[in-house]
Amino acid sequence: MWRIAGGIASASVLAVAGLTVLPQGSTPAAAATPNLPPTFAAAQSEWPVTAGAAVGTPVATLAATDPEAAPLTYSINAGNTSGTFAIDPATGQVRVAGPLTAGTSTLLGLTASDGTNTAQAQVVVSAVAAGAAGVTRQLWTGVSGSSVSYLTSLPSYPATPNQTSTLANFEAPTNAADKYSQRVIGYLVPPTTGAYTLSITSDDGGELWINPDGAYPAGAKKVASSSYSSGYVNAAPVTLQAGRAYLVYALHKESTGGDRLGVAWTGPGIATRTVIPGQYLLPWTSVALPVTAPTLTAVAQAKRVELSWTAAQTPGGAVSYRVFRDGTEVASTTGLTFSDRGRTPDTNYTYRVEASIASGSPPASSATVTTRTTNSAPVFLGAGGHYAVANDAPAGTAIGDVAATDPDVDDALSYRPVAGDGFAVDAATGKLTTSAAMSPTGGTLRTITVEVTDGTATTVQKQFTVLVTDPVRLAHAGMLRQFWSGIGGYAVSALTADTRYPAKPDSTSVVPSAATPTNTADNFGDRLTGYLRPSVTGSYTFYLAANEAGELRLGPTSDPTSLSGAPIASLTSSATVNEWTKYPTQKSVAVTLVAGQVYSLEALHKEAVGSDHVQIGWQGPGMSAPAVITGANLLTPDALDSIVPAAPTTLAPSLVDARGVTVSWTAGTDANGISGYRVYRDGALIGSVGSAARSYTDAGVTGRHDYAVVAVD
């Protein structure tokens, strides 16, 4: 935009939502376009080559792509220690450059560069004996049943078949015997890149499996199933790359009568379904595959390091892992995790994990990972820290927990009170009790400050509030029910939009648990309010069941204003009595609650016509299923209301003129929250305002008057 100032034209730049508007005639600076790296189609692939192949024989082509179509340069960056292979820098074609020994494999690292960024990939080259072709047949005899599960559940499957042989193509002998099972397994090496459709036929049950990403068993997926009456069953088309090795196998279970097993294909240049010939197959044992290196992750605490790693791919057989710390082996496992305990805080440790199988391929080691053990401070559970105890309680009365947690699971926590009289805290458990008899008169708010330490110099303190109140009030179990009649509609918003809500319900009552009576009326809304006081510290999940609609809120403190915000559970269509899981929204996320602490609880409910009810349920420590919250853990709103709110302060006229008088004040305080203020002129009530108000205008008044403001909880 433009403006004229003092006869001189000046310009200002306006930026809106990332768009900069420049003065007329300006030339914007060209934005720098970031260079994007090239990518390989596969991070790893497996390629067979005949042992004794002549120098220059092509093995594999792993062409990468570049988003900017920049020319790429290829190189071998790892694994070619003997110079057995070479790569065309322009095309990425890997070629034989030296002698190959049958039964060996080489893991090559490849790089593609656009001159700025690079991409990495791995190629496994397996030297296969000259003349190797066909597929391996493994046979288990004397097996009953007709489904493949009878084979896969055998203790001897897959390690110890009764017989092993090689088939010339992917078709087993027909009508060979009864009560047997077989696995026909090998590597498919397609002649042309393209989409292939594999199919299986069997009598009795059969399954076809293939790894569409390579030669390792871990990636195999079942793609088709067949039976004695199904004929050939097609798998979904799969794109295969010419010259790559793909693990493929068929499982077969024969009961009695005729038997057959065959795997066929169609694809580029193969228009008619044909049993896969041996020239495109390699026996399972002919291709040597290395163990791939696991990827290691370490997460340190103060006195332990949690290690986890990805599963290594192997050509077959059980894999074991050796864990090394600072070069020394500290564990051996067949799992994918290890907890290294007893470490020293504030210390660096270096780890690696080595994967191996019983025979064949050499082990593969992960990259090393260095981490540092660091102590974390404990954290008190619960946001509020509000408790209640009867004013006639003797010394030693249990009040609740002042529980804390520590991210360092090996740390033992210790508690002690550092301020406040009349209470004690168990050093080991954090149990809060009275240390002396409470005063039998009135209600008071008392505080205690507790310190927790994890055994190091790290300590954390928190102040807790204890309401010492009339035992009769603490016996007010249940929830307050407020009822508004004559409200149409199905949604909770119809209740909250009613002018009578929340101050003027048509009736109020106390329900003994977190549930209303059923089938009481039509076209109404109601609200349940009160306090929740759990008996056990732990993780709780809340549920809401209602007809028709409802919302559930849980406040982190005893202050009802903490109920603001989104509901933790809700439903907009009816769920019957005790029907807790009809809708996903009926269930809250897990919430940690502390024994003895007081939490605000509210449910809003809207009924149209027909059946009606609302229930609040929970599930937590010692509860096997959701259940309605009983009065044993509920207090009505008046149970904690034995303390008069602190009066608002600094009352003063902020405006006095012909229009009237405006008085203002600072907020009053109350353990249970302020619900509003009443304004008096010369001793007479002239108005009420909400809890957020800090002023009131007395319009049209003249003369001298005295004003007072009273806080209401």
Explain the layout of strands and helices:
Elements: E1 2-5, E2 8-11, E3 14-16, E4 19-21, E5 39-40, E6 44-50, E7 58-61, E8 64-65, E9 73-78, E10 85-87, E11 93-96, E12 105-113, E13 118-128, E14 135-141, H1 149-152, E15 163-167, E16 180-188, E17 194-203, E18 205-210, E19 221-226, E20 233-234, E21 238-240, E22 246-254, E23 260-267, E24 270-275, E25 281-283, E26 296-300, E27 304-309, E28 319-325, E29 328-333, E30 337-341, E31 348-357, E32 364-365, E33 369-372, E34 379-380, E35 386-390, E36 398-401, E37 404-405, E38 414-419, E39 423-425, E40 431-434, E41 444-453, E42 459-469, H2 471-474, E43 479-485, H3 492-496, E44 507-511, E45 524-532, E46 538-547, E47 549-554, E48 569-571, E49 591-593, E50 599-607, E51 613-619, E52 627-628, E53 634-635, E54 649-657, E55 660-666, E56 676-681, E57 684-690, E58 695-699, E59 707-712
Parallel strand pairs: 6-13, 35-42
Antiparallel strand pairs: 1-2, 3-4, 5-8, 7-11, 9-12, 10-11, 12-13, 14-15, 14-16, 16-22, 16-25, 17-20, 17-21, 17-23, 18-19, 18-22, 23-24, 26-27, 27-30, 28-29, 28-31, 31-32, 31-33, 34-37, 36-40, 38-41, 39-40, 41-42, 43-44, 43-45, 45-50, 45-53, 46-49, 46-51, 47-48, 47-50, 51-52, 54-55, 55-58, 56-57, ...
Can you tell me about this structure?
The chain has 713 residues and is mainly beta. The chain has 6 domains: 39-128, Cadherins (Immunoglobulin-like, Sandwich); 135-286, Jelly Rolls (Sandwich); 296-372, Immunoglobulin-like (Sandwich), CATH 2.60.40.10; 379-472, Sandwich (Immunoglobulin-like); 476-640, Sandwich (Jelly Rolls), CATH 2.60.120.1560; 649-712, Immunoglobulins (Immunoglobulin-like, Sandwich). Helix content is 2%, strand content 46%. It has 3 helices and 59 strands. Strands 14, 15, 16, 18, 19, 22 and 25 form a 7-stranded antiparallel sheet that branches. Strands 43, 44, 45, 47, 48, 50 and 53 form a 7-stranded antiparallel sheet that branches. Strands 17, 20, 21, 23 and 24 form a 5-stranded antiparallel sheet that branches. A hairpin with a 2-residue loop joins β54 (649-657) and β55 (660-666). The two termini are 54 Å apart. Residues 1-27 have low confidence and may be disordered.
